[in-house]
Design a protein that fits this description.
The complex is a heterodimer of chains A (499) and B (345).
Chain A lengths: L5 H17 L3 H17 L4 H32 L1 H5 L1 E3 L5 E3 L8 H35 L17 H16 L8 H9 L1 H4 L7 H9 L9 H32 L6 H32 L17 H5 L4 H15 L6 H18 L4 H21 L12 H20 L3 H13 L9 H12 L5 H11 L4 H18 L13
Antiparallel strand pairs in A: 1-2
Helix pairs in contact in A: 1-2, 2-3, 2-7, 3-5, 3-6, 3-7, 5-6, 10-11, 10-20, 11-16, 11-17, 11-18, 13-14, 14-15, 15-16
Chain B lengths: L5 H18 L1 H9 L5 H19 L4 H9 L15 E3 L11 H5 L18 E7 L2 H15 L3 E7 L13 H9 L7 E5 L8 E2 L4 E3 L4 H18 L5 E5 L7 H19 L4 E4 L1 H5 L9 E3 L5 E3 L10 H20 L16
Parallel strand pairs in B: 1-6, 2-3, 2-4, 4-7, 7-8
Antiparallel strand pairs in B: 5-6, 9-10
Helix pairs in contact in B: 2-3, 6-11, 8-9
The chains are: A mainly alpha (499), B alpha/beta (345).
Amino acid sequence: MLFPTVSFAIFFTVVLGLSWLLRPYALVWRVFIIGASWFFYAWWDERFVALIAASTIGNYLFGRAVAASRHRAQQAVATPSAALETRPLAVGRVRPASRPQVDWTPWILGLGIALNLGLLGWFKYYEFFAGSLDDRLEGLGIGAPFPLLEITLPVGISFFTFQAISYLVDLSRGEIRPMKALDFATYLSFFPHLVAGPIVRASEFAPQLEQPADPNRIPATWAFSLIAVGLFKKVVISSYLAEEIVDPVFAVPGDHSSQELIVAVYAYAVQIFMDFSGYTDMAIGLALLLGFRFPQNFNSPYRALSLQDFWRRWHMTLSRWLRDYLYIPLGGSRGSQWFTARNLMITFVLGGLWHGAAWTFVVWGAIHGGWLIVERFATGNNPQPAPGSGRVILRWLITFHIVCFAWIFFRAESIDLAFEMIGRIFTAWGSAPLITPLLLAVIAASIAAQFIPPDWQVRVVARLSQFEPLVQAGAFAVVLVVVEALGPEGVAPFIYFQF
Amino acid sequence: MRTMWAGDVVIVVVVSLVLAAVLNADSLLRRAEQKPFGDERDFWVGVWEPVQTVSDGLLLNRPRQALDEILERDSADSSDRVQGMVVLGTDGTPPPLPGASEQAEPTPAAPAGLRVPSAEDPLRIWVGGDSIAEHIAESLARIADDTGQMTTEINAQIATGLTRPDYFDWPAELSAVVGREAPPDVLIVMFGGNDNQGMPTPLGDVYRFPSPGWREEYRQRVGALLDSLTAPDRLVIWMGLPPMRDDAFSEEMQYIDSVYREEVQKRPGVVYLDLWELFGQGRGEYTPYFEGLSGEVELMREPDGMHVSREGGDLVAQMILDRINAELETATPTPATTSEPTPVG
């Protein structure tokens, strides 16, 4: 069920009303919201419900085991003398009352993470590896032992798997307490974030379950604004750019001139931002109406003055996930520059592979990792130029174009096509019928909008919130009609659903 | 910032959606009517029809109509709606379309005689149809245009076919394409993936899929379309349908594909590309993996079990290019003059 559809509008309206009616009844509300979320998920494929149910049960049990093991280990540390107590053996010798306490937490955690990654890997990477291995083994005359299974990737699996891993790791670190079964099921399957994030942490979600939002203080105008802006970004801007230039140019780059290729790259940079941040805006807005606050996922990423800055603004919940559960455990920047460089490259190449088993994603990750290393070597830990510096524009231009250059690989269907596109950017000057003044205006305005100070938006929404609810309802209705009128006949799935 | 009570939030959501539905009633009703004939369509038409009546009566649909006019989009004017249809499960033969009796006759078209292309005046290829055609069309454009002797135009429209011209009118679209001053030398089409549904006729009936009446009506449409596309100096390639993962859907596609085979067979100037054979790997069954152009076993279908993957598209595109090249070997050395479209009917 896509957000910008009539089906979802009806579903959400029913869920919203019932959710607030049932909220005072903790158990009933949890069962209801889990059921609603599973219904939302089953809209794609009924089998997905079994998947998220299995992930929920498995991770809940692992969470209990991790927490219990950590508790035992801590007790042993707290009372070290216990390990040294002795008692007489029946035969008269003495031996320790118990063996020194072994901390099984890392092993249980490791197994839990491995199972999560195994599930993700099965759906995401099995075909790639099975195909590659079969080819190699066939070359050696061994045959092709790995059957090709035409596996369908369930939408959202990456997102709820990452949430589950963060839950287990945070438990092992003692940063959170284990959740109750129904709380954990709600956390993992809550439909606003289920299929494409933001990646919410248990430490952010659990307190909101335990202490429900005040039903008298819903920031509804803010939520409606987010939903309206998200719809406009996705249905109008993203669809327009995809249809007008991005899809035709990336499909057959050989048919297009340098000018069209260049504009298509900028257009894709805008399209993917509008598509993904539009989804996130809607997800955050919907959650707010249900009384939940999600973390911010985008913060004007194309105004970044360095790649480090970009990753603090782009898909922020994935960035912090990679930082906290991959980069820092690898050692982070706690070593030499080369050690940091290694960790950056590993983190970003794996971050690239997270998007799918394709060399294009590896190259995309490597470009980001590589340029972050260059920034580290060039500017140390503080790559931001001084405010007001004349180099600010140059830094912005360089950062933006590195990001756009990497998007070519991200969007291209193959490495060959990406290189063909890059080559033609410099060699195929000619007519450019796809480039229109409106197209250029949309791209330029979308990039310029990144520089609007965030507090302007807050001020505008604060002003809107002064209007009576029915006036706000009328305004929201008008936005819905305008978005529908400006958008295409059908809405394409969100880009990030495939990851 | 002012906040709201949860009850007010629910009221705002309900009011805004109801108001949006009333303001947008024409569009909602039109989209409902464009759904395949059946219970779901009946349900949504039943929901939106009274809303549209109220909206129209109170002139609340006018702002949206004005917006459509400003945007130069097709207005959701109720005059061109498909409504009041009688669904026929009839076995009877439908009344012929105006001029259809002549169209249904096999066209004595001569085999295509393509002109010799050059870099200055490349062979114009037009390829399109429903979404299954999309990857094939893109793959063809990649390899054909690389020759420097051909240029490819793509027009793949999602969720379209020959049953529902009220949603997208392919005969009209193609009539405009072949009626151009410089029409395509090679025309490649693919339909059928969305045609397993009831079909409204210009006389106001709906033939239920797959009744004999439906088949006859569909046959007439395919025949008429083919006749409108063929020309002595044009190669027309009709891509058949591949087997599908879902057995029932696959059977429906086979039924539709049999109409194409019959109609193409009557027209010697048209080439039928047998994708059932290719994607069924000779067994006539859905076969997702087989050897592609790279010489390795590749996934030839999309995860939905219906569409053709990029690798599958590459394979079909190569077959098409081979066929075009074979035709070019016997092509007349002097470039053909601009051809006139074959008159319809």
